[in-house]
């Protein structure tokens, strides 16, 4: 490697890359999943965002529980950090509750629902943020490359999580929320909250539990089957989705998070490209 090229690489390792990593840290520090305010008790307090939910889908495979007046009119939710602290939905649960007519289901006071996607994303973001705040002295191009690729990998996974479009696509549906709502939900009705890009999405599932699958493996339950409908696993039990209702609302703060993540990813990719430019030298 000639002296000019060596000097350029040394400048990259000692000045340019640390500056770029500092820019990544600045981007990540503005993400609402990470930022919090400290209250008088010394505990972290996250900024809350309230949204109005609009029903966008009623996939009604079994009309026996449907209301003739329409099943969903409105809903509201409050998102605080990585949890839902308030949720109310106007819908008809079943013919046994309120004679199948519209009623308001709401999350009880002091109860909350996890946004598991956001919580998963938060752990990877914190890892990337901590790494970007502790910039080492790079002794070689390979060392710098491994360092920046580690941050990049975490950020790309975070973006994947936020773009999946539902926790059911990430893992089997888990629910302990039947008693968190008033009135209490029937066992076969499940409410799931998730993020999809810049949207807050609430799914309401009406399930029919199955004793067994015809398929050979439990993962086959997630496949669409023309004879059985959409299958899923709920708290370890196989179930068929007989009906699905979707509420959603755009959340500007989530879009800002995605924009900041994109900016950090682009910076990391630029640095990786600069380092790979020395591969053949």
Give an overview in words.
It is built from four helices and 13 strands. It is an alpha+beta fold and 281 residues long. β12 (229-234) and β13 form a beta hairpin. α2 packs antiparallel against α3. The longest helix is centred in the N-terminal third of the chain and has 27 residues, at 3-29. Residues 36-44, 61-72, 166-172 and 216-228 have low confidence and may be disordered.
Helix content: 25-40%
- Helix-strand sequence: HEEEEEEEHHEEEEEEH
Question: What can be said about the biggest beta sheet?
Answer: 11 strands, antiparallel
- The secondary-structure class comes to alpha+beta
Instruction: Count all strands and give the number.
Output: 13
Average of the residue pLDDT scores? 79
Give the CA-CA distance, first to last residue.
6 Å
Instruction: Give the amount of beta strand, in percent.
Output: 25-35%
Helix count from the secondary structure assignment: 4
Shape: elongated
Give the low-pLDDT segments.
36-44, 61-72, 166-172, 216-228
